[in-house]
Design brief:
Blueprint lengths: L19 H35 L3 H29 L1 H21 L3 H29 L5 H5 L1 H20 L4 H10 L2 H10 L7 H6 L3 H11 L3 H15 L21 H7 L3 H19 L2 H15 L4 H23 L7 H28 L5 H20 L1 H12 L2 H33 L1 H22 L11 H6 L2 E2 L5 E2 L5 H5 L2
Helix pairs in contact: 1-3, 1-4, 1-6, 1-7, 1-8, 1-14, 2-3, 2-4, 2-19, 3-4, 3-7, 3-8, 4-18, 4-19, 6-7, 6-15, 10-11, 12-19, 13-18, 13-19, 13-20, 14-15, 14-17, 14-19, 15-17, 16-17, 16-18, 16-20, 18-19, 19-20
C-alpha cells in the first residue's frame, strides 16, 4: 500500500505522518531480538537448576553464562559481511535458523558439554541478531521516526528477557530434570516461525541501492514513504551515498566494489577519514560503556544479588527477578517515544547521570546488607529499590540509544560492518562482566563491585558529553557531514562549523 496524501510537511518538505508499513517491517525484523532476550533472561533462573542437577562449580557457571557473548562476538563480525553479501533480510532468516539449532541442543542438554555447545551456537545467532535488526530498522525508516523504529530491537530484547524470567518462574514448578530443559528448548518454536515470516518482508532499500538495484529500491521506498515525492528525495540521497549519479533514472547500474562489503575494514581502520574515525570511536565507546557499567550483572545474576540483599527462597528470588524484566521493559517502551522528540544526546546524559547515583546506592545497600550480622530489612529495601531505579535510568537512555546511535551514524557502505564492530565490542564487554562478576564480587565484595561500576559510569558520562553529537532529525546520509567538522555549542553539543564543506552541502 502506498500513501500519497501528504497533509503535513516539515521545513524540509517531508511528511510528518507515521508510516505504518515501515513500522510493521521494523516490528517483524525486531522479533529476532525477543528470542535473544529470552535466551539471556531464561539462563539467569535456569542456572540455579543446572548447577543443582549437573553439579557444576561457580567457574563453570560463569563460563556457561559468558560463552554466549564470546560466540556472539564472532557471530557479529561474520554478520556484517554476510548482510552486505546476501542482504539484510536473509541475514535475519539465517540468525533465526542458528537460534533454533542452539535452542534444540540446549533443550536436549544431557550433560554440560552438550549444553555448552548449544549455548555457543545460540551465541553466534545472537551476534547476527544484534547486528542486523537495528541496521534493517534504521535503513527502512525515515529520519523523523528512525529513533522509534530503531529502538524496537532493544525493546524486544527486554520483552524477551521478561518472558525468560516468567518462563523460569512457571517451569521451575516442574521436575528438576525437565524444568530447565523446557526453559531453554522452547525458544526453538518462535525461531522456526520467524524464519518463514521474514521471507515476506521487503529488503532494505539502501542495500538494494548498493547492489545497483535502483528500481527495486524505489519500489520499497514507495511502500515505506508517505508520498512519491518523499520516496524520490530519499532515493536521490541514497544514490549519492552509494556512489551513483543522483540524476540517473536507470533501474539497474553496475554496483561499486563496496556492494559486497569488500575493502570496508581498510576504510574503517587503515585509512579512515577524520569523520569516519570519530564515528568509529563514538560507536565503539557507546557499546563499550553499555555493558562496562554493569547491566549484565543484574540481568544475569539478579537472583544472586537479591540473595545477597537478604531474599532467601527460590520462588521469591525468581519473582524479584521478574521485577527486573518488568522495569526494564516498561522504561524502554517509554523511551521509544522520547528518542525522536527529546533526542539521543539528552537521554544519554540524563540516563548515565542517574546510573551513577543508583549504582552507588546499590553498592551502599549491598555493603550494609553484607556487613549486618542480622537480617536488615532497611538494607534489603534500599538495595532492591536502587536496583530497579538503576534499571529505569539505564532503560530510558543508554539501553536504546546505544543501538539507535550506532546503527545510524556510519556511512552507507561502511554501515553493516561498522555496526558489526560495535556489536563485537558490546558482546566482549558483556562476556567480560558475565564471566567475571562472581569472581569480582568475591574479590572486592558485592558492594565494591557496584561502586566500581559507578566509577565507570562517571567516565561514560564525560565520553558521551564530548564525543557524541545529537543525531535527532538527521538523515542517514547527513551523518558523515555531522562528524566531519565540529565545534562546541552553548549546550555542549557538536555542530557543523560555518563555512565547512558540511555546512555548504546543506545550503
Amino acid at each position: 500500500m502506498v500513501v500519497h496524501a501528504v497533509d503535513n510537511l516539515d521545513a524540509n518538505g517531508e511528511s510528518q505522518k507515521f508510516n505504518k508499513y515501515a513500522c510493521a517491517c521494523s516490528i517483524v525484523a525486531s522479533m529476532i531480538s525477543i528470542i535473544f532476550g529470552y535466551d539471556t533472561g531464561v539462563m539467569s533462573g535456569a542456572m540455579i537448576f543446572i548447577k543443582e542437577e549437573l553439579k557444576i562449580d561457580d567457574v563453570e557457571v560463569e563460563v556457561l553464562a559468558g560463552i554466549l557473548n564470546i560466540c556472539a562476538l564472532v557471530g557479529s563480525l561474520f554478520a556484517g559481511r554476510t548482510s552486505d553479501y546476501i542482504g539484510r533480510r536473509y541475514t535475519i532468516v539465517l540468525a533465526s535458523v542458528i537460534f533454533m539449532v542452539g535452542a534444540v541442543l540446549m533443550g536436549y542438554g544431557p550433560d554440560y558439554a552438550v549444553l555448552l555447545g548449544g549455548r555457543c551456537i545460540s551465541g553466534i545467532g545472537v551476534g547476527f541478531a544484534l547486528m542486523i535488526a537495528p541496521v534493517y530498522s534504521a535503513e527502512i525508516s525515515s529520519a523523523k521516526s528512525r529513533g522509534f523504529l530503531t529502538s524496537l530491537p532493544e525493546l524486544c530484547i527486554s520483552i524477551g528477557i521478561l518472558l525468560g524470567y516468567i518462563s523460569n518462574y512457571f517451569f521451575a514448578k516442574l521436575t528438576l530434570k525437565l524444568g530447565w530443559r523446557l526453559m531453554l528448548g522452547v525458544a526453538a518454536i518462535p525461531s522456526l516461525v520467524l524464519a518463514f515470516g521474514i521471507i515476506k518482508m521487503p529488503e532494505s532499500p539502501r542495500w538494494l541501492a548498493m547492489q545497483g538495484r535502483l528500481g527495486d529500491a524505489k519500489k520499497v521506498l514507495l511502500l515505506v514513504c508517505n508520498s512519491t515525492e518523499e520516496a524520490d528525495r530519499r532515493l536521490h540521497d541514497i544514490k549519492i551515498a552509494a556512489g551513483f549519479d543522483p540524476n540517473c533514472n536507470e533501474d539497474y547500474l553496475k554496483p561499486s566494489k563496496h556492494s559486497r562489503g569488500k575493502g570496508v575494514w581498510k576504510e574503517l581502520f587503515l585509512r579512515p577519514t577524520p569523520a569516519v574515525r570519530r564515528i568509529l570511536v563514538a560507536a565503539i565507546g557507546i557499546h563499550f560503556f553499555e555493558h562496562a557499567t554493569g547491566i549484565e550483572a543484574i540481568v544475569l545474576y539478579g537472583p544472586r544479588i537479591f540473595k545477597k540483599a537478604g531474599i532467601k527462597s527460590k520462588e521469591k528470588l525468581l519473582l524479584a527477578t521478574i521485577g527486573v524484566g518488568l522495569t526494564k521493559t516498561l522504561f524502554i517502551t517509554f523511551s521509544t517515544f522520547l528518542l525522536d522528540k527529546v533526542g539521543r544526546r539528552k537521554l544519554l546524559l540524563v540516563s548515565t547521570a542517574g546510573m551513577v547515583v543508583m549504582l552507588s546506592t546499590v553498592g551502599f545497600g549491598l555493603t550494609l546488607a553484607e556487613a549486618s550480622k542480622h537480617e536488615s530489612k532497611w538494607a534489603l529495601v534500599l538495595s532492591i529499590v536502587a536496583t530497579y531505579t538503576f534499571l529505569a535510568f539505564f532503560s530510558i537512555g543508554l539501553a536504546p540509544v546505544t543501538w539507535v546511535y550506532s546503527a545510524e551514524i556510519f556511512p552507507l557502505k561502511l554501515r553493516a560492518q561498522g555496526v558489526a564492530i560495535g556489536v563485537a565490542v558490546n558482546r566482549l564487554m558483556n562476556a567480560t562482566i558475565s564471566m567475571t562478576f562472581i569472581s569480582l564480587y568475591k574479590a572486592i565484595t558485592i558492594g565494591g563491585a557496584f561502586f566500581l561500576f559507578a566509577g565507570i559510569a562517571v567516565i561514560a558520562w564525560f565520553f558521551f558529553y564530548f564525543l557524541c553529537p545529537e543525531t535527532k532529525g538527521k538523515s542517514l546520509e547527513e551523518m558523515e557531514l555531522l562528524f566531519s567538522r565540529r565545534s562546541r555549542n552553548s549546550n555542549g553539543g557538536i555542530e557543523i562549523q560555518p563555512g565547512s564543506n558540511a555546512s555548504n552541502a546543506n545550503k
